[in-house]
Write a structure and sequence with these properties.
Elements lengths: L2 H12 L5 H15 L5 H4 L9 E3 L14 H7 L3 E7 L2 E7 L5 E7 L8 E7 L13 E5 L9 E4 L4 E5 L3 E6 L5 E6 L7 E3 L4 E5 L3 E6 L41 E4 L9 E6 L6 E6 L5 E5 L5 E6 L6 E5 L8 E6 L3 E6 L7 E4 L7 E5 L6 E5 L5 E6 L4 E7 L3 E9 L4 E8 L9 E3 L4 H4 L12 E3 L19 E7 L16
Antiparallel strand pairs: 1-26, 2-31, 3-4, 4-5, 5-6, 7-8, 8-9, 9-10, 11-12, 12-13, 13-14, 15-16, 16-17, 17-18, 19-20, 20-21, 21-22, 23-24, 24-25, 25-26, 27-28, 28-31, 29-30
Helix pairs in contact: 1-2
Length: about 500
């Protein structure tokens, strides 16, 4: 649905909705009324199916996974245990190539509550809390602005994050800062190449640093790199929290092909089978272009067929060396074959969804997870069946980013709560459906709770109710024998 079609639809069905706020309220009323409430005969194909799921209305009961191996059955029947950890306001999520570290870029603290930070989780049993959730390590970055650009270097066990002018690295084992790199006017995404070079993109250019030759912040992480900057109090964050290193300049700056001199790279992903090649999206561009940034910056395939810029990418190289997925501004998720210029599959998430994506292959079956900002859910797509199978609840939170841990068959989601201010987004008493009341004790803590007035879903859309009431990192662990009672706690604030 185009923007014009959407506006006409809202006006005809609801009336004179003219402002953005009125349009959003109208859309919620329209689409809420079109949704079928949760129904156990359809919505719980297995006793281990989580009640925080809603299977597609196009599926007829009884429904079971079309695939027979244990893990993919668990995924397609929503057999998962859901746990959570509160976070600062997230901007992105990333998992290292070896699936041993999950990183969430976020903002919070400081005078304006916008100080850049990162939360990261080392994925090993020895690093877990008593409740089994990995221990969260929070690091204040010392950067000046908030951006979503993250990458990791597995061999050095480093996490890299960038603001508009600098790139900083931290060891994920002890949280100490290692590098500060000055990128100047190049403000795009970052990546680490197999030969140990860090690359940052910009408009028609790339900045390159040879990591082994860069000075570091020393064993205690306090040594200044480069000149000491004069940090003004007028900066967006607290001046005292901005680390003053100006950083080292790039080892080299290189220009892209002359045809790409105006190609302002905003997002990219490593090609799943060509080391050193990135698939890129650019500002105000619907197309994608692959660029060999390691060997001569040659331009490769141009991919077309989108209605906006791709904001999210995902690959699964070990299982699908010729596939990648994009989440686009036009509200659609697309699966691509790197050898073809047009998408092989398009799935609609919805108007204004700004979808995040994760490509997975449980037991070799291609599966796409799609997160939605507007709809406050995670959708699970069957690539072979070319359909959306079910949705997972996010506790009324918008999905900012997704990451698939193939080693542990676990989906991670960074989610943002839009209902923190009860004055701007008021709450009402929760309305429990009968099927939920029937299984609650009279002294259940759910009684007396509240529900956001503007939540995208009503309480009867899932088999259980959940309102996180906070920015949250969610973990969905898929298991054949999952315990459906393992769910995040309902918000104690509301």
């Amino acid at each position: 649905m185009t923007e014009a079609q959407y506006e006409m639809f809202v006006r005809v069905v609801i009336g004179n909705a003219t402002t953005a706020k009125q349009k959003e309220k109208a859309r919620r009323k329209v689409f809420r009324g079109d949704r079928k409430p949760w129904d156990k005969t359809i919505q719980q194909p297995h006793p281990s199916t989580t009640l925080l799921s809603h299977f597609s209305d196009k599926i007829s009961a009884p429904w079971f996974s079309p695939y027979t191996t244990p893990l993919v059955q668990a995924v397609y029947e929503a057999r998962c245990e859901i746990s959570s950890d509160s976070s600062l306001n997230p901007t992105n999520i990333h998992i290292s190539a070896d699936s041993n570290c999950v990183v969430v870029s976020c903002a919070g603290g400081g005078l304006k509550n916008n100080e850049p930070a990162l939360d990261h989780y080392v994925l090993s049993p020895s690093a877990n809390n008593a409740d089994g959730f990995p221990q969260c390590h929070s690091v204040k970055l010392g950067l000046d602005e908030i951006t979503p650009f993250i990458t990791t270097d597995v061999s050095r066990r480093l996490v890299f994050m960038a603001d508009e002018e600098r790139v900083k690295s931290f060891r994920w084992d002890d949280d100490l800062p290692v590098h500060t790199l000055a990128s100047g006017s190049l403000r795009g995404p970052i990546t680490v190449l197999p030969d140990g070079k860090l690359v940052r993109a910009g408009k028609g250019k790339l900045a390159v640093w040879k990591l082994d030759k860069q000075p570091t912040h020393g064993p205690d992480g306090k040594k200044v790199i480069g000149k000491t900057m004069d940090v003004d109090e007028d900066d967006d964050g607290d001046a005292d929290n901005i680390e003053p290193s100006s950083g080292t300049r790039p080892s080299s700056k290189v220009r892209l092909d002359s045809a790409l001199k105006d190609w302002n790279i905003k997002n990219w992903v490593a090609h799943p089978s060509l080391p050193g090649t990135m698939i890129t999206s650019a500002k105000n561009q619907c197309a994608l272009i692959s660029i060999d940034i390691a060997h001569g910056r040659k331009t490769g395939t141009k991919y077309i067929g989108q209605g906006g810029m791709a904001r999210a990418f995902s690959t699964d190289p070990s299982a699908a060396p010729n596939a990648f997925v994009t989440g686009c501004e036009d509200g659609e998720i697309r699966l691509w074959d790197t050898r073809q210029p047009l998408p092989v599959l398009t799935m609609e998430v919805g108007h204004g969804a700004m979808p995040s994506v994760a490509l997975a292959h449980p037991d070799g079956v291609p599966t796409i997870f799609g997160g939605s900002v507007k709809a406050e859910v995670i959708k699970v797509y069957d690539v072979r069946g070319r359909q959306m199978v079910y949705e997972l609840a996010t506790g009324n939170n918008q999905v900012v980013g997704l990451a698939w841990d193939r080693t542990r068959s676990t989906l991670w989601a960074a989610t943002e709560c839009n209902y923190l201010d009860p004055y701007r987004n008021p709450y009402r008493s929760v309305k429990l459906p009968g099927y939920i009341k029937s299984r609650l004790n009279e002294d259940s803590s759910v009684y007396g709770r509240s529900w956001p007035n503007n939540a995208y879903h009503l309480e009867n859309y899932f088999g259980d109710i959940l309102n996180t009431g906070a920015h949250t990192t969610l973990r969905f662990q898929f298991k054949p024998d999952a315990d459906p009672c393992v769910v995040p706690p309902y918000s104690a604030r509301w």
